[in-house]
Design brief:
Number of domains: 7
Number of helices: 40
Low-confidence stretches: 1-45, 94-98, 120-152, 552-577, 888-943, 1227-1271
Helix content: 25-40%
Shape: globular
Structural class: alpha+beta
């Protein structure tokens, strides 16, 4: 027998689950001494091994049938004489009860197991993804090492029938910790990194660590139980992509107690205030009633909308929408009147008579009304004659079937029904960490019912799909398909609050993304078009192409492949698009400029869904037909085939075309892509206006001295109260073209100060106007919506007027028009911070990490699987409920051999080896494998309309026991705040309460404090001995809004006067904590001493109010202080200089040279309130200066005249330059064909045409076109 055969036999024995003995241990150690050429877990079997297996099976059959036969060697028989040695230990221990010896019984067990193993059909249980992830031989992990096959390795059993086990659902602590490490979203590890972690644990002395194979098996068991499944789709353009189960994710949210406790299902009428999405008009008034929460439960009755209900006053109404008001549930109802029509008594619904009813006024629901209407002398509520259109005409009632009521009542079957609107987001990001672009289109979403504080938390953002080949609309098709089924049938989910099953109705509240992506959703041409706005029909200049790449570069419906770093001008096949030849731009007159700008800065007629469906219904069809026309053309021009054969091929190809070729956007119920794609403030404002203005400002600083001054001012800027880190002037100036949104967020708050004296006054005013817009837009809570909208519209108009005063060329940027639609979107969706995309943009880093640590062979599938496991980890560690008594996944009897290019299913059977965890047969869920994919999809196979979660029936879920993870895994999250820092859970310690002191310092007598010398009455010191009282003077105190207030900071506080409460500004002089006081026992300050200030008029240059300090001081309670505020020195009037006075540190060592810094002129009591501060902007509103409104028509006219004159002057200069330099000598000028000779025109220094150097082509084009037009 060869070594390979012997090793194979030993491996087969080692795979059996049996109690090892000393002999077995020796046998299992043999493979370590044998030169193994291949991995022992799946060796390729040659012909001689097949022969050996045949003989082995025969021998095992004999051994199994005769387990008691004598063995050739027995220690109790003398081999030479054949006489029994009665004194041997074995003979003494001989079983005299005729029971089979232990060795015989063990041998029988082993032989039976091995015989069954050898006769079992061959099953390829290894996933192709597992093989593909090994890029080279060095990436093979420790699963092949001898530690992976150590005979004393701990056997792990996943007992899913015992939720009381300490580490449920994991077998033990080791597997729990390693499973968490493998699936932390922000810590994506490769195979090598996982091997390094295992090595480190072993080196630290940890034993019984599970191998990679064991962890993979545990993952395959847990994922079907409480994870999300990935679904394969074959798109209409022929691309294969994977989407995670939307219904499963929503069901997880409902079963997650951390999330469920914060979710809101009913809109709220909050009066004039607005801070959440459910308080805005889109959810409160506009959303289709069939997508809102259709019922409420009062005592034992369920009231559904569009079902007649009886009020306590005896009247009958038709509820149409449920909502909250002052913590009570209300209904918006239509009045109902009894009527006899054609002799039949019934009801009419007066939809024009709408009013609100408190839920406590409801008496009878529809079923009870039906059963008691006769006793009340009322018509049958199941008979509705219609809705009155006039005195004698009625429109039919179409909301429900009057005989059965609301359809959700029947589908719910007595369970609650709730609505689940979502923010749906799509963006493209690179799958590489390098500069090589690897475009991945990704879809994410988050629950709109979460409060603003939690809606953008990383743990609450959910991944749906990504692909580097499928365009967004093709991917959206699969998502919409899931959404449509869920809206039609509802999603059954376990409600962790009520501990019962509920029916969930999902909907799309809005779709978020950057401007090109939102234009693509709206089937709109984008910013390059003549009608560039997706929300209205404003007309721009079709010949203006001066917008930047970020505005127009993303509107492409062809994705880039993963190995191509193509630009936005590349086609799907990698070929460069030919750039259109630029034609001479038509000159605009002054009146045309004025008309264009006036239209640009106003909102035009709004677009709507119905209008676009009518006019652009063929856009998506044309795109798909264009993709297939190339394939048809390739067949028709193929050589070597006859015409009939080509016709047959074309006919077969046409049959593969998808039947439905309309855009999936129009299949989303109650979604208008023109009005439900709100203005994205990150790209429009920070990466739009602020970026434009800052780049322009830096570009205008031609002198190095000016840039040095700007760098010094930025580095010296006092950022207290702004909540940002000190600024790096060198980076912000020298790398102005490579800044991020965070940088622009800081710049917009400091630019009006640092640019003083470096730019013209008009540009400073434009910066100040932009800052006023930013402070309003980034307000999280709006106290008076109507007043806020008016202020925002005024600020936007003033900003546009100031921009127009600079140059009309700014209005070639479409974002200066798009901002006009923001006030309406705030009214409809809530504060702009709700639909900001910073959280989603940050989530792109997780997708990128998953792409980097994959093999790039199936990015859509691999990333979706990775994200699904992240969902599972989040759900388990959040204490989420999952199904327990479900069927376990069992290995398939056989698995068909994969065809070349075919991917394996998303869930493979468990491998049968000694690493397999033992699973009870009724403790897991059956995995629905994803369909196999092929490299070339030539036939459209529509996916199943029901996702894995939607296939679960109410009966199956009702028979399920819902359990959670044990307490031990949840306690791991509290170690070093692991859950909050790395998983994004909201489990961190609560913020320090208001008044908490930090940096206490040393004790001192009261007489040594500044407060003791102030001639004021301090309430906290009343009744105390001022001679012996000791105090602390902390350096920092926490305010009510969470700000850390330092001594020397400026604060806003409320002062109660005889005329009311006044808001004032003061400077913190001292923070006092009296030893022995009640406040000191809880670690809080007793009072804060501030110096008063006088708030004056606005400064002419800064357009912000000036303040001056006073010698008066005042003791304040912590509750009186609202926030910290940023104030700046009035350097413009005090001529503060820039000198080399700042210390420079290199490698954390102080260098000898000094850096430039601003040296303020002191003593000075002249300060300016920085109302460009974004934090606590609403608190600073009383101190803002309202600038005088500019006369827009006059500004536009003057700017148009200046622009026209500048263009004429430029043309004249170009003509003069061209006449001086002359056309290219060998190339005939276009004017020559008209018989025009180039001669000198009397310009001093002019030379003859024969000696002129070649002018640039742009100058020749301008000159030639001008000559042609002139002649």
């Amino acid at each position: 027998m060869s070594y390979e055969m012997l090793a194979l036999v030993i491996f087969l024995f080692s795979t059996l689950d049996h109690a090892s003995s000393g002999v077995h241990d020796l046998i299992l150690l043999i493979p370590r001494r044998l030169p193994m050429k291949t991995k022992p877990d799946r060796p390729h079997l040659p012909a001689e091994v097949d022969i050996f297996l045949l003989h082995a099976r025969t021998a095992l059959e004999q051994l199994t049938s005769h387990p008691n036969r004598d063995f050739p060697r027995n220690s109790w028989v003398d081999e030479e004489t054949g006489v029994v040695n009665w004194t041997s230990d074995t003979m003494v221990d001989l079983d005299t009860h005729l029971e089979q010896p232990l060795a015989v019984r063990e041998t029988a067990f082993l032989t039976a197991q091995l015989h069954a193993y050898l006769n079992e059909p061959a099953v390829d249980v290894d996933s192709d993804a597992e093989l593909e992830e090994r890029s080279d031989a060095a990436s093979v992990t420790s699963s092949d090492s001898e530690e992976s096959y150590h005979p004393t390795r701990k056997h792990r059993v996943i007992d899913l029938q015992n939720p009381g086990s300490e580490w449920f659902p994991w077998p033990d602590k080791e597997t729990c910790v390693l499973d968490i490490l493998r699936h932390v979203p922000r810590c994506s590890f490769s195979k090598k990194q996982n091997a390094a972690i295992h090595w480190g644990m072993i080196a630290l002395g940890l034993r019984d660590l599970p191998s990679d194979r064991v962890m993979d098996n545990i993952d395959k068991v847990l994922q079907p139980l409480c994870g999300i499944q990935s679904i394969r789709y074959s798109g209409k353009l022929g691309h294969v992509y994977y989407t995670n189960d939307l219904a499963g994710i929503i069901a997880q949210e409902m079963a997650n107690p951390i999330v469920r406790d914060k979710l809101q299902f009913l809109p709220e009428d909050s009066g004039p205030s607005l801070s959440q999405a459910w308080q805005a008009s889109r959810w409160l008034h506009e959303l289709d009633s069939d997508l809102t929460t259709p019922m409420i439960r009062l005592n034992t009755q369920d009231y559904f909308i569009h079902e007649p209900a009886v009020l306590k006053d005896g009247s009958v109404c038709m509820p149409t929408r449920w909502f909250k008001r002052n913590n009570d549930t209300w209904a918006r109802v239509w009045r109902m009147w009894p009527i006899i029509k054609e002799g039949v008594p019934g009801w009419i619904v007066a939809d024009q008579q709408s009013y609100d009813v408190k839920s406590s006024d409801l008496l009878l629901s529809f079923p009870d009304f039906v059963s008691t209407h006769g006793h009340r002398g009322l018509p049958d509520p199941r008979i509705i004659h219609g809705m009155p259109m006039s005195t004698d005409k009625f429109a039919p009632w179409k909301q429900t079937d009057p005989a059965h009521g609301n359809r959700w009542r029947k589908q719910a079957g007595g369970h609650r029904v709730v609505a689940f609107p979502v923010w749906l987001y799509c963006d493209d990001t690179s799958g590489n960490t390098s500069k090589k672009w690897n475009k991945h289109n990704s879809f994410l979403f988050t629950a709109a019912g979460l409060p603003r504080k939690y809606v953008h938390q990383e743990s609450n953002i959910h991944f749906l799909s990504t692909s580097n080949i499928a365009p967004p609309l093709e991917m959206l098709d699969g998502i919409v398909e899931q959404l449509t089924v869920a809206q039609d049938q509802g999603i059954w989910a376990w409600d962790s609050y009520y501990r019962e099953l509920v029916l969930v109705i999902p909907s799309v509240l809005a779709m978020l993304g950057d401007n090109p992506m939102q234009s693509e959703f709206a089937c709109h041409i984008g910013f390059r078009g003549k009608f560039f706005c997706r929300a209205c029909w404003v007309q721009g200049d079709p010949e203006d192409e001066e917008d930047d790449e970020e505005d127009i570069g993303g509107n492409s419906d062809t994705g880039s492949v993963s190995d191509t770093s193509a630009s936005s001008h590349d086609t799907a096949d990698g070929k460069k698009k030919k750039k259109k030849k630029k034609h001479a731009k038509k000159k605009q007159t002054v009146s045309e400029m004025v008309s264009r700008v006036q239209q640009f800065v106003t909102q035009s007629k709004a677009r709507n869904r119905a209008e676009t469906l009518k006019e652009l219904q063929n856009q998506f069809e044309s795109a798909i037909i264009g993709a297939f026309l190339e394939r048809i053309f390739a067949i028709s021009t193929k050589r070597g085939r006859s015409k009939p054969q080509k016709q047959v091929d074309i006919a077969n190809l046409r049959r593969t075309f998808p039947p439905d070729i309309t855009s999936p956007v129009w299949h989303i119920k109650d979604f208008d892509p023109h009005q439900d794609t709100p203005v994205e403030i990150l790209h429009v404002i920070l990466l739009g206006f602020v970026k434009y203005f800052w780049r322009d400002a830096v570009a205008r600083l031609k002198k190095k001295e000016d840039k040095d001054i700007l760098i010094a001012r930025l580095s010296s800027f006092n950022v207290s109260g702004l909540g940002i880190s000190p600024l790096s002037g060198h980076t912000l100036v020298n790398y102005a073209g490579s800044l991020t949104g965070r940088d622009f967020r800081a710049l917009v708050q400091v630019a009006p100060f640092v640019l003083q004296g470096l730019l013209p006054e008009d540009k400073i005013h434009a910066w100040t106007a932009l800052s006023a817009v930013v402070t309003l837009v980034w307000q999280p809570h709006i106290r008076d919506l109507d007043r806020f909208i008016l202020d925002l519209e005024t600020a936007i108009d003033h900003f546009l007027d100031c921009t127009c005063r600079l140059s009309l060329n700014w209005f070639n940027k479409p974002k200066f028009h798009v901002i006009l639609h923001l006030p309406a979107h705030i009214r409809r969706f809530g504060p702009a911070m709700l639909f900001a995309t910073e959280g989603f943009e940050s989530f792109n880093a997780i997708i990128r990490a998953c792409s980097v640590h994959s093999n790039r062979h199936a990015p859509s599938r691999d990333i979706a699987a990775r994200m699904a496991r992240g969902n599972r980890l989040r759900h388990l560690l959040s204490g989420g409920f999952f199904r327990q008594n479900v069927q376990a996944p069992t290995p398939a009897a056989s698995k068909p051999k994969k065809k070349p290019g075919q991917s394996s299913s998303a869930a493979d059977p468990l491998p049968k080896d000694n690493s397999q965890p033992v699973v009870h047969p009724v403790s897991s869920t059956t995995v629905t494998p994803a369909q196999s994919s092929s490299t070339l999809n030539t036939q459209h196979v529509p996916p199943s309309p029901e996702t894995p979660w939607m296939k679960l029936t109410l009966a199956e879920l009702s028979d399920t026991r819902w359990v959670t993870a044990a307490a031990a895994p949840l306690r791991l999250l509290d170690l070093n705040s692991f859950g909050s820092r790395l998983l994004g859970f909201d489990k961190s310690e609560e913020k320090n309460p208001a008044g908490t002191c930090q940096k206490l310092g040393t004790k001192k007598l009261w007489s040594r404090t500044v407060s003791s010398k102030a001639n004021i009455l301090i309430q906290a010191m009343s009744g105390r001995n001022q001679t012996t009282t000791q105090v602390y003077t902390p350096g920092v105190v926490v305010l009510g809004n969470g700000d850390s207030c330092n001594v020397g900071d400026s604060v806003v506080y409320d002062e109660v006067t005889t005329v009311g409460t006044c808001r004032r500004i003061g400077n913190v002089v001292e923070i006092v904590q009296i030893i022995g006081s009640v406040a000191q026992e809880s670690g809080k300050a007793d009072f804060v001493l501030v110096s008063r200030t006088i708030v004056g008029e606005a400064h002419a240059l800064y357009c912000m109010r000036q303040i001056q300090g006073m010698d008066e001081v005042q003791a304040l309670n912590i509750g009186d202080i609202q926030c910290t505020i940023n104030i700046q020195h009035n350097c413009a009037d005090n001529n503060c200089r820039v000198e080399r006075s700042r210390k420079v540190y290199q490698e954390r060592e102080e260098a000898t040279q000094k850096a430039l810094a601003v040296t303020h002129t002191f003593p000075s009591n002249d300060w300016v309130v920085n109302t460009a501060q974004m934090r606590d902007a609403a608190t600073l509103q009383p101190f803002r200066f309202t600038p005088q409104r500019l006369v827009r028509p006059d500004i536009i006219r003057v700017s148009a005249e200046l622009e026209h004159a500048a263009r004429k002057q430029k043309v004249a200069e170009l003509k003069a330059a061209a006449l001086l330099t002359g056309p290219a000598a060998p190339a005939p000028a276009p004017a020559a064909s008209l018989g025009i000779a180039f001669t000198s025109v009397g310009v001093p220094g002019a030379v003859s045409s024969t000696s002129r150097p070649h002018p640039p082509s742009s100058l020749r084009n301008v000159l030639n076109s001008d000559i042609i037009m002139r002649d």
